Amino acid sequence: MDTGDTAWLMTSAALVLAMTAPGLALFYGGMVRTKSVLNMMMMSYGALGLISVLWVMFGYSMAFGNDIFHGLVGSPTEFFGLKGLIGTGTGDDLGVATHLVGTIPAPVFVGFQAVFAVITVALISGAIADRAKFGAWMTFAAIWGTIVYFPVAHWVFAFDGVTAGPDSKGGWIANQLKAIDFAGGTAVHINAGAAGLALAFVLGKRLGWPKEPIRPHNLTLVMIGAGLLWFGWFGFNAGSAVAANGTAGVAWINTFVATGAAMLGWLLVEKIRDGHSTSLGAASGVVAGLVGITPSCSSVNPVGAIILGFVTAVACALAVGLKFRFGFDDSLDVVGVHLVGGLVGTLLVGFLATDVAPAGVNGLFYGGGVDQLWRQAVGAGAVLVYSFVLAYIIGTIIDKTMGFRLDEESESMGIDSVVHAETAYDLTPVGGGGFRPSVGSASAARSDSEVTA
To answer: In this protein, which residues make up the domain named Ammonium transporter AmtB-like (predicted)?
Structure first.
């Protein structure tokens, strides 16, 4: 066990956790209308609570247990409830982990990967903002996480002979295809983006979209959320080195500079296309750059990272308009940013990778031909198709059984008050009337004097 590696990965896990709550919750929450902000944030928090439990029970085992079927899924019972992974020594060896992943205790690695699973599921929610039942969302999150994310994490992140013992077998993308996805361009962003697209088709358009303008209600929250995402993403990417070493340093600097270039790229597109650069554009460019550099931060040099970030942001800035052309209501541009950004970042590895970077592979522009490019394309395409098809089937079944979408009256009134019996902002004049929560709600449990005050 290496204490420096262990400390860095625990820190990285905490950084990635902050990306979901409060980072993504604020980013998404600020982009919806006032009457939907609490529900939008609750979808992130709900994913956090739900996936954390499923991950410990069987998700980690499905992702990182010994492969049981042609590189497609790990054994769900091998580490069920983390059995066999949490032992420590006694006496002179008090506190020393008895099961390691590389140089770190297995529970630390479990926790680090858990927050990846959480944010992947939470990302999907942005595509169905303003109109999804919370119970239906939680049901979808549990099923999709189990049969889509956990197996796909096995495909991409489970390397032979690492997490389940020296003779263990891992996933097909990591070991047979050998596509490069350092921190989750396929497993996280293409995966979530494809699922978001599928659910946008299942739930249909919001009331009034696209004829009525549906603007972000609080751009200050959006900017704070984007800043927290950028901050936490250093744990996401540099932490994926699973060590405090040179690879982590390269991933850190590439993440930093690609994101800066991406923000500039998005702002430039806005200036040329619309005549002005916006704060929402800056925040969106930041996220697009972070998405693009995620799969490639170990395989490009800093100049390549700048090019990659800029190109990814330009592609995403143009792609967010596709929903109007094709008529699917992706509320918060999960498709335009995460699916497109994940695809561009994953494919550009095949062009910009250089063997001076830690991954040690040359792309097309460095004399490597198309060998790595086709591998990247196959990996990206496989995850996209698998996630889209399964998400569409799961979403359709939920919609036909328990109902996925709110009725029109409830959607018009506002999902916060109807579903959660709360409002994000108390706009009632002092001494006046206004919304009164139903009996049994958290607010109703307070005394009348407190409510009046």
So the answer is: 7-425
